[in-house]
Design a protein that fits this description.
The protein is of the alpha/beta class and 404 residues long. It contains 14 helices and 17 strands. The strands form 5 sheets. A 7-stranded mixed beta sheet has the order 4-10-9-8-7-5-6, with helices on both faces. A 4-stranded antiparallel beta sheet has the order 13-14-17-16, covered by helices on one side. A two-stranded antiparallel ribbon has the order 1-2. The protein starts with a helix and ends with a helix. The site of ligand C6P has 16 residues, from helix 4.
Length: 404
């Protein structure tokens, strides 16, 4: 059982006020707040262990290297990967997908090939593919989204063809909250011999993910969305595929031997980690993963699901409420519109009441076009949010409604 009051005490920022009102932080899909242990891990690393990694013979460098590699092992275990060679540290989901798109495209894609993405992708899982498609001449195919906010799996099946070289889809929509049936999608793609990449930015913080059980070939996520620091993220990739892919960037760390005539590359995962990595970020990410494991991923999923059901029930009672995305399998993200109130008006007025929500297109403009709306108001929850905060949101919306 989650003791939410005890948990809230672990997050210093949750005690603050904005505009003289207690902060109600409901923008967790954008970034989560940090527990004291993560803040301490950063400070501790700079106070006691700071030195560049993988380079120094001296004590501190070795200690920092050991801690970074222990963090890699922590990530491996957290997502159920087979080997630390398959865990690449990046700046976040965006960099993970850019790395994947650039390197996978160079290794495996040519004119006439097809990559399938979906109509509910974040721009981070659209634009990197468009950039590579523009260079190499392959085509993007899009899985349509139903009115309920689910992927149309029949349409997906019919998109699969001998031209398809990769499927890249989000696990959880950052707008609709839909949890996509990635296991089924992966089985279907694999039955045609097609690898699958999964954008896990909105899933890893909320549900237990095991990349091997899912069968994912690639899996990306961001540290800052799972209570870790900004500037650190992960790309998991199956070793067999990563080995065939060229480096994304060149520089220190990713090489074995450099001459002016020829350079040979380092082994995995370092081949993909050019330059000084954010070792402090990876150490603090490990602390965040320890923290969520101490709370329990199953407990987190259960608590957030109950809170989300409660919020949906209360929001649906508001006259003029339109929830965008009503898939039965959903995560703790709720997008909505109320009557003719513009999302940014709603967001600005809620903010004055101390309630932080996100408004706009949420970096998913094609999805907004599909739904025929310019944007939404989005409340996204964490296991540190309470029913009382949901009640504050509901009474805030009622107040805004009364003003219009
Ligand atoms: N979504 C949101 O408010 P970065 O910025 O690299 O950490 O994550 C990018 C990203 C990729 N995929 C999905 C599904 C995402 O939700 C995000 C980030 C934030 O919805 C910021 S736009």
């Amino acid at each position: 059982m989650i003791d939410v009051e005890r948990i809230r005490r672990d997050f210093p920022i949750l005690g603050r006020e904005v505009y003289g009102k207690p902060l109600v932080y409901l923008d967790n899909a954008a970034t989560t707040q940090k527990p004291q242990c993560v803040i301490d891990a950063i400070s501790e690393a700079y106070c006691n262990e700071n030195a560049n990694v993988h380079r120094g013979i001296h004590f501190l460098s070795q200690q920092a290297t050991d801690m970074m590699e222990a963090a890699r092992e922590k990530v491996r275990q957290f997502i159920g990967a087979g080997s630390t060679e398959e865990i690449i540290f990046t700046r976040g989901t965006t960099e993970s997908i850019n790395l994947l798109a650039s390197s996978f495209a160079q290794a495996f894609l040519k004119e006439g090939d097809e990559v399938i993405i979906s109509g509910m992708e974040h721009h981070s899982n659209i634009v990197p593919w468009q950039i590579q498609a523009g260079k190499l001449g392959f085509t993007l195919k899009i899985i349509p989204v139903t009115d309920l906010g689910e992927l149309d799996l029949d349409a997906f099946s019919s998109l699969l063809s001998p031209k398809t070289k990769l499927v890249s889809i989000t696990h959880v929509s950052n707008v609709l909250g839909t949890v996509n049936p990635v296991s089924r999608i992966i089985s279907l793609a694999h039955s045609h011999g097609i690898p699958v990449a999964v954008d896990g930015a909105q899933s890893v913080p909320h549900i237990k993910v095991n990349v091997q059980e899912l069968g994912a070939d690639f899996y990306a996520f961001s540290g800052h969305k799972i209570y870790g620091p900004t500037g650190i993220g992960v790309l998991y990739g199956r070793k067999e595929l990563l080995e065939q892919m060229p480096p994304y960037q060149g520089g220190g760390e990713m090489i074995k031997r450099v001459t002016f005539e020829k350079t040979t590359y380092n082994e995995l995962p370092y081949k993909f980690e050019a330059g000084t990595p954010d070792y402090v970020g990876s150490i603090a990410l490990a602390s965040a993963l320890d923290y969520v494991q101490s709370v329990g991923m199953d407990e987190i999923a259960r608590y957030e699901s109950e809170l989300c059901s409660y919020a949906l029930g209360r929001l649906n009672d508001i006259p003029g409420m339109r929830i965008i995305g009503n898939a039965p399998e959903r995560s703790a993200v709720i997008s909505f519109l109320v009557g003719n109130i513009h999302p940014s008006d709603m967001g600005t007025l809620l903010d004055r009441l101390g309630i932080a929500v996100r408004t706009g297109h949420h970096c998913a403009e094609p999805l907004m076009d599909r739904m025929g709306i310019p944007g939404t108001v989005r409340a996204s929850f964490s296991f540190y949010n309470t029913r009382a905060e949901v009640d504050s949101l509901v009474s805030g919306i009622e107040r805004v409604r009364a003003m219009f």
